[in-house]
Amino acid sequence: MNVPTRSKEREVTAISSQTATTATGALPVVEGIVVHGDHRGRTIGFPTANIDCVSTSVADGVYAGWYEGADGLRHQAAVSIGVRPTFKDPIPLRLVEAHLIDFSGDLYGETARVSLVSQLREQRRFDGVDELVRQLTADVDACRRLLGRAG
Question: Is residue 41 part of a domain?
Fold first, then answer.
């Protein structure tokens, strides 16, 4: 499926996910400017930094990763790459959205660098927001466990 990009979420029961690496063994990195989205994540308790990148060859899915902003500090992140199938957007855009774990602040306009460590699951459509929130909570818990060991 060819999905437009804006030049920029299987249950997690255990961390047995595959490590995300490139052919050279390096972690895939997504870089771009943090832009305003539609603020859906914020309304359900999972605000995201929407990263405007020209393109990414990384497969759609949910990843554990590290977000590094302009200040050089690294933050654990749950990263979604794809079209958000639960929300049935009229024109589905391929997005890169990073939920910074235990972070609160304004990131708009800063250059972000997200290093993907491991794919947690594929994107899937949920029957409603409650089911999505339960899965996002499990995704964040998985990121904490995984990145706590890799940090």
Answer: yes
Contact 113, 92 (CB under 8 A): no
Place of tokens 């063994």: 25
The domain that contains 50 carries what CATH number? 2.40.30.30
Give the chain's domain count: 1
Residue 137, by phi and psi: left (phi above 0), alpha (psi -120 to 50) or beta? alpha
CA–CA distances in Å: residue 104 to residues 45, 55, 75, 99, 119: 11, 27, 11, 10, 24
The C-alpha angle with vertex 29 and arms to 24 and 9, in degrees rounded to 5, equals 115
What mean pLDDT is reported for the chain?
Answer: 81
DSSP 18: P
70: its two tokens: 């302009």
Give the range of the structural domain holding residue 57, as residue numbers without chain letter.
Answer: 29-150
Q: Are strands 74-82 and 29-35 parallel, antiparallel or unpaired?
A: unpaired
Report the predicted TM-score, pTM, of the whole model to 2 decimal places. 0.80
Bridge partners for 96 per DSSP:
81
69-88 tens-digit pLDDT? 989 999 999 999 988 777 77
Sequence-ordered list of residues with C-beta below 8 angstroms from that of 134, at least 6 positions apart, any chain: none
Write the CA distances from 108 to 13, 38, 74, 79, integer angstroms. 33, 13, 16, 17
